[in-house]
Amino acid sequence: MKRETAIIADGRQWPCPAGASRLRPARRGNRASLRHRLAAWRRLGVALAAALLSGACAIRMAPPAPSGEVAFDLRGRFSVSQDGRAQSGSFFWRQFAAGFEVDLWGPLGQGRTRLIGAGGGLTLVNVRGVAVFDGDAAALMQRELGWSAPLDAFSAWVTGRPAPSWPVRVHGHGVFEQLGWRVAVTSWRDVGGQALPGRIEATRQGVRIVVACREWSSPPA
Q1: Are strands 175-178 and 181-191 parallel, antiparallel or unpaired?
Q2: Residue 171 — very low, low, confident or very high, per pLDDT cuts 50/70/90?
Q3: In what order do the strands lie in the sheet with 122-125?
Q4: Within 10 Å of residue 155's Cβ, how many Cβ atoms?
Q5: Could you tell me if 168 and 176 are in contact, meaning their C-beta atoms sit under 8 angstroms apart?
Q6: In whole angstroms, what is the distance from residue 120 CA to residue 152 CA?
Q7: If we measure between CA atoms, which residue out of 54, 52, 66, 64 comes closest to residue 131?
Q8: pTM of the model as a whole
């Protein structure tokens, strides 16, 4: 059978069956274009890997569970005002020895969301039951709720005290500055012979959060 030769990219010739299409040398422009595309894919892969390793992106996962005994349960109302916009709703805060669970919901239980702090970072469980974790708690709240607050510190603020883990400037009984927030207990209530906040205001750079403490169960020691 008569054979023809097919010329390939490295310049060598190899026999091929008669009638087979003759291969032409690859054009230099095509090879450069291919190299550019491969390089772009490699850069994209590196960027995605770096984002995952740094914890900068949110990860869907099963929600963790805070550990330890329950320190207190608190029910009440909250409102958030910023940039001329306002949100309000109800909340249930369960504080554990290591971590917390906070449920937020609007009128008639709409938009129920759970925030879980356990083992670093924050997990948000939305109304569809999808859990999303982010090592940057403030970024997760801002992205999903449109506002953010330092919940690790708030677990102490709702008891009328500054959080022990950060520097604080005290201005009076129940009034202090911490983490750039000014916190003021504007009313107190007696709970089993213990004075606990009835209303708290926290403000920072145009953001105002008001917490009305309606019902304490297992009040903090």
Answers
A1: antiparallel
A2: very high
A3: 59-60, 131-134, 122-125, 113-117, 85-105, 67-82, 207-217, 194-204, 181-191, 175-178, 169-172
A4: 21
A5: yes
A6: 10
A7: 64
A8: 0.71
